[in-house]
Amino acid sequence: MTSSSSPVDVLVIGAGVTGLHQLMGALDAGLSVKVLEAGHGVGGTWYWNRYPGARFDSESWTYGFLSEEIWREWNWKEQYAGQPEIEEYFNFAVDRLDLRRHIEFGAKVVSVVWDDASCTHTVTTEGGASYNTRFVVAASGNLSVPFIPEIPGRADFRGDQHHTGRWPDGVDLTGKRVAQIGTGSSGVQIVPAVKDQVAQITVYQMNADWVTPLNNGPLSEEERARIQRDYEEIVAVLNNSPSGFEHRSEGLSSTDHDLEQRRAFFEKTWNSRGFRKLTENYIDLTTNPEINREWCEFIADKIRTIVKDPVIAARLTPTDGGYGGRRPPFGTGYYEAYNNPNVDLVSLQETPIVRITPDGIETTEGHREFDVIIWATGWDFGTGALNRLGVRGRDGLALEDHWKSGPLSYLGIMTHGFPNFFFPGGPHGSTGNNPRYSGDQVAWTTQVIVHAREQGVGAVEATEAAEQQWTGRMNESKGLFLESSYFHGANIPGKPVAQLLNPTGRWAMQEVMREDAAAGYPALLMTGQESGQPSAAQGGADDVAGAVRNAIGAHTQAQDAGDAERIASLYLPDAVLALPGSEPLVGLEALRQAFLGWAPTAPQKHLVGNTVVTQVSDDEAHAVSDVVFFQRGESGWSVQVTGRYEDTLRRTADGWRFGRRDVQYTA
Question: Is the CATH code 3.10.450.50 the one for domain 543-665?
């Protein structure tokens, strides 16, 4: 094993759009940064996905970087750029901003291990290189772990087989008999792109999706001029748009139109570009089952009109959910491709695959011979890449164990028990144009890292209460997509079905970010001391309010965990604890015995917030906080009592410690 030459402030995993955003943000903040990228080029998803027809379905200029320097010097050719142009763009941006020297390619991360004593991570690659860093930002992406189903005989196939997400250079399909398994976004792009090249392509479809036209085209000179002229306005829209797109809904409800007007509106929507079919459709499309059904019937009519074979048309028409239940694919000539005699469709609902043979695929209907199999079977979305990084947090806790029932996060960026570990662009972060959501997360991540450095804090992590609150919001907000979709992990055998997106939307995430920052990050536990600097948690920084809130957060965390010794360690020897209806407890031993005696018959949690800190002197502060106690019963969590904490804390060599806590119940 070899060690890198010197430690860095921030180590970023992944050189896709989120990782490059984080590299730019950290450098702008004056931090030292190293990026480790498993591939041999930049672009992430757009480096690995080289299959025929691969392209954006977000408008090109809305997906990339919002840096004016890059914006002014790059002109997109198409509304929705194809993979070669996308990869060219990322390489241009990296070289124009002189970022490549910070990136190490061919460096697949296999281990990220936290050390409490030094408040650092050791990151190890598959090649044996190791790196020491204080902060790790895992920008490993949601669409980076290809999924291929376990089908008997797959290893025995003598022809070529490729997953769309690991498509190699130089694949020649000319004159080949091709099987494509899967009809999600990638599969919908491939079929029309190769139909005129192959001898035969047989598409194996598990579930039909509501495919609508992308309506791509070249950007006109007028459109390019508008994009350059209106840079500031466009960026303002993208920074504040709930979807992250430059789309502007008219705010129409289906009740604003009669049936004939709705048909005309649907025709206009069908001819609109990309995701506008969701963002600029009727505002009640996803909440009104009747109008969603009417839109689906409109699409079904289109399918029957376009596809000449009524049997194929019926197979291409979904029967298991409305529009938006799964990620909507956008095609270019997809339905039309099935009118070609060399394009066939097999329904795996009707005739499942039995096995892969050395020369083809056998279904319950019979056997077909192929030269090539394309696996357009999707991804281990959300947690797949993160759970494969070998991340170990406090006390050796494995991330995959912490998330064994589904992801737990705060803002889709941090998880409790894993200090100085951030994962923007991961689970619980996005529902829309991903770079805009992850861009918000990168900005917040950078802000937190800078704050920790300025305060001399060694370790930053989400409190358990903040993690539970955010994860609860994600799970309770059902959102648009079916639980059978890959956005809930349902496509991966054995994976827990759990929310992997942020169904509450971008505005809700931005609001929590603003409120947390304005209040001094009460949702974060900041502890320890950065080497060579005084720690706010230890009283060496001017942010007394932040340090006091951190102490209160540590108390809350320890109390919820039932850790009596840890709670006691936060009090002074002569501390006083005043509880309603009883004599005050005086002295550390009395408090410790009381903490040991608190053993509720049912699990309890409490949420502390709205903390107001008043600095009495250099070494003393007073804090008043609202508190809500929760208890879990057979029907779930419920409010047990609400109240208020009044705390007096004093600065010591070991940080701020409680001299007195008065507990009051208000309801």
Answer: yes
